[in-house]
């Protein structure tokens, strides 16, 4: 049987590539991560980027983005699955279906273990390889501190008791240090700076339950960025910056009624 014709649509996750000469010298782990991303096999992509990082050579900006995308996508469906399983267990228990509720809770526990494994793997790479390799004043430090805060936040979302407190404490510390360094090395409307403010404010609202603090973090980020644009101190916002500002504003509309 003849093979099917190639799909004319762009493959998922396709990224701009260097010219052939540059591609010839690309790390094989990065090349394999590209293939895994286009096949939407994000656990594999994360493992290939782990191989690349463990060579202990600083990542390029594109490799940094690939590392982030790999682990973010590896977690996305698992975070969604845990929320659904929790909702089903709660609903079934309310209806008196204890057996079904127990099954849903058991499945939630299984997926939570996978989620914890992925988060722990990402955090080990950030803390043992990436942060130590970046000098002070480099904007990559802010990027990795944001990721560190994010992955402790993901752990805190589903942890209980002391484990939740420990994860939240570490997330808060990473975000706080990231915000301090961002103020020193990044323009206020830089997408990494704004993304850090967005995620920190979400953490303050959802994990710490500090809605007023979340509102203040979001207001400060939006106000400073838009002021910089109005004064002509920075170029017009890129698409990513504008999208992040819009997300911050959307959250403010929701949170102001709760603060």
Lay out the secondary structure:
Blueprint: H1 20-24, H2 28-38, H3 42-53, H4 61-94, H5 98-133, H6 139-158, H7 161-185, H8 191-206, H9 211-230, H10 239-255
Please describe what this structure looks like:
The protein is an all-alpha fold. The chain contains ten helices and no strands. The protein has helices spanning 20-24, 28-38, 42-53, 61-94, 98-133, 139-158, 161-185, 191-206, 211-230, 239-255. Helix 5 runs antiparallel to helix 6, helix 6 packs antiparallel against helix 7 (161-185) and helix 9 runs antiparallel to helix 10 (239-255). The longest helix is centred in the middle third of the chain and has 36 residues, at 98-133. The chain is globular. The protein starts with 19 loop residues before the first helix and ends with a helix. 33% of the residues are buried.
What general form does the structure show?
globular
Rg to the nearest angstrom? 20 Å
> Hey, roughly how much beta strand do the residues contain?
under 5%
Average pLDDT works out at: 90
SSE arrangement, N to C: HHHHHHHHHH
Largest sheet: none
Q: Which regions are unreliable across 5 or more consecutive residues at pLDDT < 50?
A: 7-13, 18-24
Number of strands: 0
How far from one another are the termini? 64 Å
Query: Structural class of the helices, strands and pairings?
Result: mainly alpha
Fraction of residues in helix: over 70%
How many helical elements? 10
């Amino acid at each position: 049987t003849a093979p099917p014709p190639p799909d004319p649509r762009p493959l998922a996750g396709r990224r701009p590539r260097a010219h052939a000469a540059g591609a010839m010298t690309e790390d094989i782990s990065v090349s394999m991560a590209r293939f895994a991303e286009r096949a939407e096999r994000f656990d594999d992509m994360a493992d290939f980027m782990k191989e690349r990082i463990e060579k202990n050579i600083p990542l390029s900006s594109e490799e940094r983005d690939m590392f982030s995308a790999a682990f973010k996508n590896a977690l996305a469906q698992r975070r969604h699955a845990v929320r659904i399983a929790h909702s089903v267990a709660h609903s079934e228990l309310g209806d008196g279906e204890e057996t079904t509720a127990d099954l849903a809770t058991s499945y939630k526990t299984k997926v939570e273990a996978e989620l914890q494994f992925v988060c722990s793997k990402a955090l080990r790479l950030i803390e043992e390889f990436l942060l130590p390799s970046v000098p002070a004043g480099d904007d990559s430090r802010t990027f990795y501190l944001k990721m560190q805060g994010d992955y402790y936040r993901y752990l805190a979302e589903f942890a209980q008791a002391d484990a939740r407190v420990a994860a939240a404490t570490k997330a808060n510390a990473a975000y706080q240090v990231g915000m301090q360094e961002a103020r020193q090395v990044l323009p206020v409307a830089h997408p990494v700076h704004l993304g850090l403010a967005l995620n920190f404010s979400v953490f303050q609202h959802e994990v710490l339950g500090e809605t007023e603090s979340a509102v203040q973090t979001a207001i400060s980020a939006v106000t400073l960025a838009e002021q910089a644009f109005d004064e002509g101190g920075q170029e017009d916002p890129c698409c990513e910056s504008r999208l992040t500002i819009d997300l911050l504003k959307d959250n403010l509309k929701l949170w102001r009624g709760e603060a």
